[in-house]
Amino acid sequence: FRRAHTLTVLFILTCALGYVTLLEETPQDTAYNTKRGIVASILVFLCFGVTQAKDGPFSRPHPAYWRFWLCVSVVYELFLIFILFQTVQDGRQFMKYIDPHLGVPLPERDYGGNCLIYDPGNATDPFHNVWDKLDGFVPAHFFGWYLKTLMIRDWWMCMIISVMFEFLEYSLEHQLPNFSECWWDHWIMDVILCNGLGIYCGMKTLSWLSLKTYKWQGLWNIPTYKGKMKRIVFQFTPYSWVKFEWKPASSLRRWLAVCGIIFVFLLAELNTFYLKFVLWMPPEHYLVLLRLVFFVNVGGVAMREIYDFMDDPKFHKKLGQQAWLVAAITATEFLIVVKYDPYTLTLSLPFYITQCWILGIILVLTWTAWRFFIRDITLRYKEIRRQKQEHKYEKDKCLSNGDGHSSILDEQNGNKLRERKL
């Protein structure tokens, strides 16, 4: 039935597209016809994928919604591969086919400079530095971290990613002027206010979802209109709830998996800034926003697939398809950045930044070796030593009462005598 339904939908869509093409006279514009043909091809592929692709772990609001984003992931990955195989000039000019205003070099905005919170030299507005930093990215930071918290479902991991990204901005501000911010912009506005408040609201939402009763009733079985409207709203909440317990220190496998998740998150965050830098896209362009919306939808599915694979590897024997696509997309974006502007990426880090990162890596490796290798060896040695001491104590306790015979042997002999009498 599903295949027949798919063929029917594809047939209707193909006929509709062909009918529209026949009705209008084909314009003699190669660029316009190319874009129209590409869009029609993508629509047909999305229609096929929405009805035929494999279902993911989420079923609300509808499995077709998540199949749609899976197909969008494939289309986006193919687009990135196409951009990767172009020359730098052709790739940047190709963006003009999407938006004629693109393909023009744009200056990066520097958020550093004057870092005085209260500027006495400006009598009309002494807090002008603070107001200047309050742009559209402040609510974007808040909602972004609210949604990331819903994806990760762990306070510690969210805070680690938030703080580490600020350290990355400190480390890479010599490459991108956009990373140059005031200290209070880094730690007060970003980490505490925007990111921290978003994480707090996200954790409160997770707490509410974990306490909610998941008992569903059909829409037409609800007698009141108020109940029907409430049921429609709850259709956009999860069908059931799974609490994420990452437990990174429980095993080496989980520790490496959590480190990999944090690394991919940070790389995807950096790709946001570096992609718009190398492809000449302004920060407020709708393509940047669409990419963030895309990652919000596919990231939640990928995190659930990763957690299922880690938590129950016997049932989930391989990593989910959306998780693989997200990893491939992140890697391809990074390859585009490397190809389009290798000079910026190869700018050497300041010496003190290099020292800090080397020290941090050494500390992480040292803790990993101690927690999963040295500590286990030490615990096993202590356990063996304790068992030997207990065995020796029992042996000494079981020594004879002075004539060299063991009390245990006497008891055994007594048992044998009783058996003979019986």
Instruction: Average the pLDDT over all residues and give the rounded result.
Output: 82
Distance between the termini: 80 Å
Shape assignment: globular
When the domains are counted, the total is 2
Which structural class should the secondary elements be placed in? mainly alpha
Report the count of strand segments.
0
Number of helices: 15
Q: Low-confidence parts lasting 5 or more residues at pLDDT below 50?
A: 401-405
Helical content stands at: over 70%
Q: What is the N-to-C succession of helices and strands? A: HHHHHHHHHHHHHHH
As a whole number of angstroms, the C-alpha radius of gyration is: 31 Å
Largest sheet: none
Q: Strand content of the residues, in percent?
A: under 5%
Keywords: Endoplasmic reticulum, Lipid biosynthesis, Lipid metabolism, Membrane, Phospholipid biosynthesis, Phospholipid metabolism, Transferase, Transmembrane, Transmembrane helix
GO biological process, one term: phosphatidylserine biosynthetic process
Function: Catalyzes a base-exchange reaction in which the polar head group of phosphatidylethanolamine (PE) is replaced by L-serine.
Pfam family, one: PSS
